[in-house]
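[job 4471] stage=fold_predict status=RUNNING
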Amino acid sequence: MITLGDVFRRFAGDYVSMHGASLLPSHARAIGDILACRTEALGGHRWRCTRCGVEVNSYHSCKNRSCPTCHRDETERWLAARKTELLPCPYFHVTVTVPAELRDVLRATQKDGYAALMRAAAQSIIELARDKRYAGGTVGVMAVLHTWTGQLVYHPHVHCLVTGGGVSADGQSWFPARPCYLVPTKALAKLVRGKLRAALTKRRPDLVIPEAAWSKPWVVHCTSWSDGAEAVLEYVARYVHRIAITNNRIVDLDDAGVTIRHKERTSGRWVHTRLSGHEFMRRFLQHVLPKGLHKIRYFGLWHPSQREQTARARLLLQLDRPADPGVPASASESPDDATRSPASGSTEAARICASCKEGRLVEIGRLYPKQASGP
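[job 4471] inference complete, writing structure tokens
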């Protein structure tokens, strides 16, 4: 399989030589981390098979959030941690997209612009959902920032996982949302637009923003989910730590460029797009976020300051929920099975020797990071 590291090893040197003076610190760090990921530069461990005696090296990952080799384990850890926070209620998936006139502004002011966009989307959902015509209570919102399309084109938008109901102001009642309906999307789009305009005007009055950004309709989609909280969370987990491109979407690489595959929005078919090496690097790096910018944020009932309200809401939902006629989890699986993270099984499989397929790999030593040789 061709990896992003392979692409960077082919084209990063020329790209840095051309843009070294203007290269953002976050971009330089991403390039360095991805080039070093799973190589001797980061060190690792040495393993030996108990049956055939073959020895293999296992190098450390870079843990950069833009690296496709590392994001899978991060997603599994996040998913395991979030399962304890789930509320037993229906959920909604809301997507808020900004118009093209705002893209240059957001790209030039990433920390302020992205934070304001995520806050405006979440606060607008919470404000509308509190209306008695809709949920009538404070909902929980998890906002996730994305900035790309399948072709790596800059396209900032926010995915929001929203509880299908909310708690009353006194925290004593749970008000469910209507089935398959949370809030009116047109009203939500106008509210997000107004809140973002007010936030940018207050925080960055120096920005020059085209008036068309505030006059044209914004695109907002809202989809209901009722397949169970865990199914919803597993779906959203694919959005949470997703990066601009994964290794399996890179289908060809040569000295001139890269071929990637992506889905067409209209037909849903997979198609191939050819990019020059420089253009691929440019498109990928524009989605690397600045250091310290949180791409996942929690609002409303899911805000860290509302943990007591969330616990009370969980209790209210459990009391109102009818008894499950199925077999309880405790009767069909042991506590160890119920709490085991998804990564634990893959770790055991990875310790089977790939050479003889029978022996187990045991650690026999540590590989220290390779240092640059002195003069």
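[job 4471] summary: Confidence is low (pLDDT under 50) at residues 324-348.
[job 4471] exit 0
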